[in-house]
Design goal:
globular; four-stranded parallel sheet; homodimer; 53% helix; DNA-binding
Chain lengths: 222, 222
DNA sequence: CGCATATTCTATTGAACGTTGGAATATCAG
DNA sequence: CTGATATTCCAACGTTCAATAGAATATGCG
């Protein structure tokens, strides 16, 4: 009977290692970002607003837990998720947290929810809309992430250059913007900008990695 | 632009709280057990082989993270999972850990895998087998957990009293045993015992909570 | 080879967490 | 009310981990 205890202690001890790797705000943010595709250390450091030195240490912990893998290219080291399953784990954690912690709902509500919540579209709806060409679909993430994978039919319109592209968009057709994921603010800003310029605009509730994880087709390149 | 950083720090900080609650071997074990149904503190303490005092502290942490809820009955306090989603999160963590950490595969392999792996049955297969009455289905968990919910058509045969029930089982029909989940050893012991007594016996790869989570019907009562 | 850039390693400090012992609270039975 | 059981609270100790600073390594370029 004691072998059973030993087994359980060993086993759940290993699970604990993995849990510890997830128990860090910066690390969760990194994993969320890596859902977009591989990134070098310095880009990640800038994205999460943390010294490179520090970011590297977090990445070390994630690599030790086998949640990320690396690839070297010249002096740069690119990190990527070790597995699609990892992002699903992060999303599961976010979903439980969002559902059960009132504080999170408050935080999100203050930032994400406009009067109409910017009329979020689910990915399934979006697929229908795109297939029937009923909407203009904008990918408002940085160009690099667009190139690494985007929804077929989407136009790359990074938030910074969106204003310049407005003139070229058909005025009459509704616009849907998507970005990195459920807690990414890019599409939100985009919708605000579009509406200020007279467009009918909505955003998706989820982002590119969720589209891919749901098994929908992904286009690559510029 | 700084409001965005503040938002992310707040948000992922909250996620971190939840991650921390998951970063404990004992706590993960508790959550796994609670997947069977509600349990009082002392039962949990015995199950995870940890002082009551200590177990209570862990439960406190879990309750603070809103992962569990309580119900009082006399001097006892019963704990239960706050949500089905919580168990799905734990399973997601286990799945990633199992897939990515070689140490876990080793640990599990040493204990769970017999020459034929005890011919694990998936839940989907099991459903077919049960519907056609092709097998005798045994629930080898403690009687209380059987009463709280079991697979329709299953016979309660707690490991302790299984030996006494052997005589009543049809010799010619194959037996399938299931228990708590992928890392529960009860069904394994059961299959060993059954085979020693000349039965053809297999076990399920997953357990009762997974059956429920998959949306299959659940029977209650003795 | 020597310099520059990108990244990682080492050592230190301070905060957070698990554990343990002892006391306190809550409920029930008599 | 008293005793008994189940659970929780409180304080102290040791460990672990994130953050920070400084040094070291690796690659590319001239």
């Amino acid at each position: 009977m004691n072998r059973h205890r030993q087994f359980k202690t060993d086993l759940y001890g290993q699970f604990e290692h993995l849990g510890r790797a997830l128990a860090g705000a910066r690390r969760l943010e990194i994993l969320d970002l890596l859902g977009q595709g591989e990134m070098p250390v310095d880009a990640l450091a800038r994205a999460i607003d943390t010294p490179v030195k520090n970011t590297s240490a977090h990445l070390r912990a994630l690599r030790l837990a086998r949640l990320v893998e690396t690839r070297r290219e010249g002096t740069r080291v690119f990190y990527r998720l070790a597995d699609e399953e990892v992002l699903r784990l992060v999303r599961a954690l976010q979903r439980v947290a969002h559902g059960r912690l009132a504080d999170i709902r408050d935080t999100v509500h203050r930032h994400l929810d406009a009067p109409d919540g910017y009329a979020p579209v689910t990915l399934a709806e979006l697929q229908r809309l795109v297939r029937t060409e009923a909407v203009t679909l904008l990918d408002v993430r940085p160009a690099g992430e667009f190139a690494a994978g985007h929804i077929p039919g989407a136009i790359s319109a990074p938030l910074g250059s969106l204003r310049r592209q407005l003139a070229r968009l058909p005025k009459h057709r509704e616009v849907v913007a998507y970005c990195r994921g459920p807690y990414c603010l890019l599409s939100l800003e985009a919708v605000r900008l579009l509406r200020r310029h007279g467009f009918r605009a909505r955003r998706t509730k989820e982002g590119m990695p969720d589209w891919r994880a749901a098994g929908f087709p992904v286009a690559r390149g510029a």
